[in-house]
Design brief:
It comes from Sphingobacterium paludis. Helix content is 6%, strand content 61%. It contains six helices and 33 strands. Strand 29 (530-542) and strand 30 (545-556) form a beta hairpin.
């Protein structure tokens, strides 16, 4: 407990210099159809802005997500190599990942959903929506969704960022001993014209690995463009590529995968347009395509090659009336896989949205709607939901929301054939129903949320076997998974005189999962869910200096627990900023997934140059 006390005391004198609470309240939640300001939304949503991200002691998207409330980020390797994301006790396949509202989750396996070529400097904000969200985002948003919103270009600029880090410890390896290190660089440029804007980023991270066969090489290329046709019409396009190569020792099937290796390449592209026909009618069509190649060598003689593609077409619209706004949408998603051990498979998903939102009831904001879905493999489903908020006064609000959702099994769930895992083509989709009640408070300095939720998942899918020597794990619909949870979060901009700015963000989540099944199977993933989660992030700035500390405590259902504390200090010159991070300050030994120990104390220094045309 002594080290925890030291960490908390360090906060006393220290999210700052960025968007203040008022600006966050004015952010429009990116839900494709209806335009809902953050302070009028009745869901459990957390937003982290670009400036807040810049202040965090984090080097990549995975590390930022790990600091968000209710998010369980389980890394199999540091520096963004590979990670699973889940929300409020769900599995890594039950969280939907989106980029500017377009689905980028991987139909092969949720293990690749975060294989995203988005550098931190291209992100405007991240929106985390918790709870069953089919009405808003369609299928596979079973326990929630993470929507990454990229920046809108406001000026011409050039930037370069170089960084390197080490634990100053020898690698745990029989051959080629040496100091464990990582290094990276990121180059970016943007061009702003009144009628069109462009941004381009390239980044590369490389590590020699902390243990035997865990070296990694990660390269990303990201481009986004936008054109204003006139005041009511605009066109936007995006293209990105990531190459992710890493030693996969103990990543999926320890101890047999000691010499495993994996290379994942992903290409994602989208084109969308926005059309405001008049004051009432708005339409936005979009097409997107995600292509993924996954080469996995369990041993040099047991190699799997997977090629999958997901093409999506969407049409979203909004019609405003005197008594409220109507939202309508259509989508089709065509998924294909060609695999050496799963075979060739294809399925299509077609859905339609309808929503209505009104503020014309006294002190009440109401949003109600449904998503109708047809899947060529599983047929028809309907997923309704509603959000209701009642204003007690200008600052306090009581909210109630309920909704349903579905997760379609991945191709891995259905068809994989490996020495350690066997799919099940008879799997049925998971269905979830969730209700939440909460109390919200907001003024010019504080945003706070405290709520209770109940969620039930039918046909819960897990990987199981019936005794330790029973052979490979197999995917099964095990039964009913129920979670009751408490969640709290507060964002506080501390009032101080002078130029010192201090911001505090704190949260606590408690999950009580129960499982009802007639099976006595041994689960691969269920005991890894979080039970207690707490975080405390404080950042401060004054003149050219800024500093932040991020603390988090995780305890899993298995009773495994760990406390992590990360620090960053930075100094900003006119065109150059220098920063230094210390992560896992107390050198805690911990696991986030499987049998993979994460790095101990780690130090990083970086230098960033940015020129902006005035």
């Amino acid at each position: 407990m002594f080290k925890y006390a030291i960490s908390l005391l360090a906060l006393a004198p220290l999210w700052a210099q960025g968007q203040d609470t008022t600006n966050i309240r004015e952010v429009i939640i990116n839900q494709n159809r209806l335009q809902i300001p953050f302070n009028k939304d009745n869901r459990n949503i957390e937003i982290i802005t670009a400036e807040q991200i810049r202040q965090l002691p984090a080097r990549n998207l995975n590390e930022v997500l790990g600091l968000l409330n209710g998010v369980d980020l389980r890394q199999r390797g540091p520096f963004g190599t590979q990670a699973d994301i889940s929300i409020d006790g769900g599995s890594f396949d039950q969280t939907l990942v989106l980029l500017n509202g377009a689905k980028v989750s991987d139909p092969q396996t949720g293990h690749h959903s975060l294989n995203l070529p988005i550098p931190l400097d291209a992100i405007e904000r991240i929106e985390v929506l918790r709870g069953a969200a089919a009405r808003i985002y369609g299928v596979n948003a079973l326990t929630g969704a993470v929507n990454i919103i990229t920046k809108t270009i406001a000026n011409t600029s050039i930037q370069a960022n170089v960084y390197s880090g080490s634990s100053f410890k020898n690698r745990d390896e029989e051959q080629k001993p040496g100091i464990y290190y990582m290094a990276g660089t990121q180059l970016g440029a943007s061009l702003f014209k009144e009628s069109h804007q462009h941004q381009l980023f390239y980044s590369k991270d490389k590590s020699n690995g902390q243990r035997y066969n865990t070296a990694s090489d990660n390269q990303k290329l990201f481009y986004q463009g936008k054109a204003q046709i006139d005041g009511d019409n605009e066109l936007e396009w995006l293209g990105s590529y990531i190459y992710n190569d890493f030693g996969a020792n103990a990543y999926y099937a320890a101890p047999g995968d000691r010499d495993a290796h994996e290379t994942v390449e992903t290409v994602f592209a989208s084109v969308s347009s926005k059309h405001q026909f008049n004051e009432r009618f708005y339409v936005s069509p979009r097409i997107s395509n995600r292509y993924n190649e996954d080469f996995y060598a369990y041993t040099p003689s047991a190699v799997s090659k997977h090629y999958n593609n997901s093409f999506s077409a969407e049409l979203n619209s909004r019609y405003s009336t005197l008594f409220g706004d109507f939202g309508f949408g259509l989508e089709s998603r065509l998924e294909r896989i060609n695999s050496t051990n799963m075979g060739n498979h294809a399925r299509n998903n077609h859905g339609a949205y309808a929503e209505f939102r009104t503020e014309n009831l006294k002190n009440i904001i109401l949003n109600v709607g449904a998503y109708v879905n047809y899947n060529t493999q599983y047929g028809w489903q309907v997923y309704p939901g509603f959000d209701l908020g009642y204003k007690l006064d200008p600052h306090w609000k009581v909210v109630l929301n309920a909704g349903s959702s579905q997760r379609i099994p991945t191709f891995t769930d259905l068809y994989i054939k490996q020495p350690t895992s066997t799919g099940n083509s008879a799997l049925r989709p998971e269905d979830a129903w969730q209700a939440e009640g909460a109390l919200k408070f907001a003024n010019e300095r504080i945003i706070a949320h405290a709520g209770y939720f109940y969620r039930k998942i039918n046909n819960f899918v897990d990987w199981v076997r019936y005794n330790p020597e029973a052979g490979p794990y197999q995917a099964e619909n095990l039964g009913e998974n129920t979670v009751r949870g408490l969640n709290t979060n507060v964002d506080y901009q501390i009032p101080l005189s002078g130029t010192l700015k201090v911001r505090l963000n704190a949260g606590y989540n408690y999950l009580d999962p129960t499982f009802r099944s007639q099976s006595n199977a041994i689960s691969r993933y269920r005991l890894e869910n979080l039970k207690h989660q707490a975080k405390l992030v404080v950042a401060a700035s004054q003149h050219h200096w800024s500093a932040s500390i991020a603390n988090r405590f995780n305890q899993r259902v298995s009773d495994d627990s760990y406390f992590l504390s990360d620090l960053r200090i930075a100094y900003n010159f006119p065109y150059v900023s220098v920063y230094a991070d210390a992560q896992n300050v107390f050198d805690v030994t911990y696991l986030e997934s499987g049998a993979i120990p994460m790095p101990g104390r780690w130090y990083t220094v970086g230098l960033k140059y940015q020129w902006t045309k005035r």
